[in-house]
Amino acid sequence: MSRKRPWDEEGFRCPYLDTINRSVLDFDFEKACSVTGNNFNVYACLVCGKYFQGRGKHTQAYTHALQESCESHHVYMNLGDGRTYCLPDGYEVIDSSLKDIQNMLDPSFSASRIATLDTVPVYSRGVDGSDYMPGLIGLNNIKHTDFVNVIVQSLARVPPLRDFFLLPANYKACTAPLVKEFGALIRKVWSPYNFKGQVSPHELLQAIMHASGNRFKIGVQADPMDFLAWLLNALHTALGGTKKQGSSIIHKTFQGTVKITTHKAGSDEVTEAETPFLYLTVDVPPAPLFKDALERNIIPQVPLFACLTKFDGQSFQEMMNGDRRRYVITRMPRYLIVHIKRFSKNTQQFLEKNPTIVNFPVRNLELGQFTQLSEEEKAKGASTKYHLMCSTQHDGSPESGSYRVFVHFKANDQWYEVQDLHVNGVHPQLISVSESYIQFYEAAT
């Protein structure tokens, strides 16, 4: 008769659970074996934090558990499903004390928890002693990736988009790594289970580089507006979106329509067309060339309404081919993105930045004068009044500057400045006089 193994006995508890070192665990990076580089069936050693492939005999994890230099490295968690094993014995460790590690590896949210994200502030403390608020957490800048960080922070504020990606069941049929990693990062940003008061977007960046064909990559600064336009389209397509209105969460959240009236050059021909948009681009008046009495460059200020006259349905925009166009918004999105065009190339093809300050209200931005809503839209009670959610600002020279974002945290009705890992409170009055570049607005209800 075979002898019963200790771990088969009722009430057995793995004797190595107290060797787990939570301070070295970091699941933000690519889940690949530290020896072979393979990313299939990878386990994390919960003692040293390193990744190893497999758990059977002759695998990297099994070998690591037997090494004399790694005495007591016996507890391993599968990075795919969170199941934990003791090696080399091979039995599964089922213990409630592992729940916090599983939650950090793959945060999950209930519908009831999601419903309170914007009304009940939550305060958490990491294993490293850092305090943070889920949803308001710093992102690591992995060498000139602040252009990604400000966009992730902005999109993480948008309730329907955030709520969609907090529940992986909403996109379980999608196999695109970009969608999977974007969802994983949004869950980590809002997770109360992080062991640190910061998150690294490394795995999302890897997916972005692959999906964009290295158009956006680590180590090379890029324009966050270019990145945002690409990301929205890439997510829409990966989620099965089509040209049909509302065919993805991206279009349901951000898509509006604008009517374009074109007066053909040299003729009386006039055409009208309605075109969907995910964001509105507005031009900034050229900055003056003169200086004040102290030889300082004068930085002018203009109201956002002056920039939006492009969409009043009356003002003509001159096209390169001589055509003249008028624009007016015919359907307002629930969430409006405004791109304040600050960068352009001069005649020598050098990038220039317009420093003009665009003034705007943080609340109650009324856009009714720029709309011609259909009767259907009016019947739906479509709002033309918006509240600012976040505003990205560029600092420094056009070629070597950096980006930061001001975000409104609904749960405590406070504004914060977020620049990579740094999160600081800020007065809303300072936001409306900054060199705003990308703005996210929510329709007032």
TrEMBL record:
Alphabetized InterPro entries for the sequence: Papain-like_cys_pep_sf (IPR038765), Peptidase_C19_UCH (IPR001394), Ub_carboxyl-term_hydrolase (IPR050185), USP (IPR028889), USP39 (IPR033809), Znf_RING/FYVE/PHD (IPR013083), Znf_UBP (IPR001607)
**Domain USP per the UniProt entry, residue ranges:** 137-444
Zinc-finger listed as a keyword: yes
Which GO MF term does the entry hold, naming one?
Answer: zinc ion binding
Domain of life from the UniProt record: Eukaryota
User: What are the BP-aspect GO terms?
Assistant: protein deubiquitination; spliceosomal complex assembly
Q: Where is the UBP-type domain?
A: 12-112
Q: What is the protein's major site of localization?
A: nucleus
Q: Which SUPFAM superfamilies match?
A: Cysteine proteinases, RING/U-box
Single GO cellular component annotation? spliceosomal complex
State the UniProt keywords alphabetically: Metal-binding, mRNA processing, mRNA splicing, Nucleus, Spliceosome, Zinc, Zinc-finger
Cell location: Nucleus
* Protein name listed in UniProt: Ubiquitinyl hydrolase 1
Q: Which organism is it from?
A: Prymnesium parvum
Organism lineage string: Eukaryota, Haptista, Haptophyta, Prymnesiophyceae, Prymnesiales
